[in-house]
Automatic annotation (TrEMBL):
SUPFAM superfamilies: Adenine nucleotide alpha hydrolases-like (SSF52402). It holds the Pfam family Usp. The lineage of its organism: Bacteria, Bacillati, Actinomycetota, Actinomycetes, Kitasatosporales. It comes from the Bacteria. Belongs to the universal stress protein A family. Residues 1-136, 157-288 form the UspA domain. It comes from Streptomyces vulcanius. This is Universal stress protein. InterPro entries: Rossmann-like_a/b/a_fold (IPR014729), Universal_stress_UspA (IPR006015), UspA (IPR006016). Signal peptide: none annotated.
């Protein structure tokens, strides 16, 4: 069963932009919208209001006002609201588990581009079981205009990036947009070549034809499943993060896969997702590997 589009809100401009983005996406996909706010009683937040029920009512009223604005813009959209008491990261991770995707807001990194990730955002992005989309304050529907693409990074074998490709094609199909599938490559050190890999490169006619063939094979099943989605296969020499960012100006959404690295301090995002999140000038979807 398909879950709702879920938006995490906290009353900031960033989360309201995320809520607006989530509502538009729910309408496109004909899905319900779930709005989640994680709340904890703060007795010292206001000297004259230490009453827990009063604070809870204020929070609910603020969330309902935000939801009311969305409902006015999208009168046919089914919306549910959950104000849950608990830690934000844990609450959002639980909400993501039942969602088609989770949408969060983030402050812009600098005056123009990128995202600033707090500890909650980093944990959710690294551990969520479902795709997470990060939206900056100031994001506008006009950025989703026709001609702008859904850009997705592809790497490795077809199964390595299948979840990200599927998400990109589904999103593009819902928007009537095209997909730009990007595969970056670099020349490995000489000692990294094995006889088997040298044979494959030789059969392909060299490194770049080999990479183009690999991308075509990865994209082929999604072309077949979504025949109406226009696809551009983009192969370029360079680091994956740099190549993706070089085409982000034409993107209405950037999609990257996530293979989180476990450390003693918890899960960490990979370098490509980390770099794109910090420098992209469009919303970014981080899709976990299955």
């Amino acid at each position: 069963m398909t879950g709702p589009i879920t938006a995490g809100v906290d009353g900031t401009d960033e989360s309201l932009a995320a809520l607006a983005w989530a509502a538009r996406e729910a309408v496109r996909r004909d899905l319900a919208l779930r709005v989640v706010h994680a709340w904890r009683f703060q007795p010292d937040s206001a000297p004259d209001v230490a009453d827990e029920d009063t604070q809870r009512r204020w929070v609910r009223d603020a969330v309902e006002r935000a939801v009311g604005t969305v409902a006015e813009r999208h009168p046919g959209l089914a919306v549910t609201t959950d104000v849950e008491e608990g830690r934000p990261a844990e609450t959002l991770l639980a909400a993501a588990a039942d969602a088609e995707l989770l949408v969060l807001g983030s402050r812009g990194h600098g005056a123009v581009v990128g995202f600033l990730l707090g500890s909650v955002g980093r944990q959710v992005l690294a551990e969520a079981a479902r795709p997470v989309v990060l939206v900056r304050a100031g994001d506008r529907p006009s950025a989703e205009a026709a001609g702008h693409e859904v850009v997705v990074g592809q790497h490795g074998d077809p199964e390595d990036s299948a979840p990200a490709l599927r998400f990109a094609f589904e999103t593009a199909a819902a928007r009537g947009a095209g997909v730009r599938a990007v595969r970056a490559w670099t020349l490995p050190p000489v000692f990294a070549y094995s006889p088997a890999s040298l044979k494959l490169l030789d059969e392909a006619g060299g490194p770049e034809p080999f990479e183009k063939k690999a991308l075509s094979e990865a994209v082929a099943p999604w072309r077949e499943r979504f025949p109406d989605v226009h696809v551009v296969e983009h192969v370029e020499m360079g680091s994956a993060g740099q190549v993706l960012l070089s085409v982000s100006g034409r993107a209405q959404l950037m999609v990257v896969g996530r293979r989180a690295h476990r450390t003693a301090a918890g899960a960490l995002l990979g370098s490509v997702a980390h770099g794109v999140l910090h420098h992209a000038d469009c919303p970014v979807a981080v899709v976990p590997h299955e």
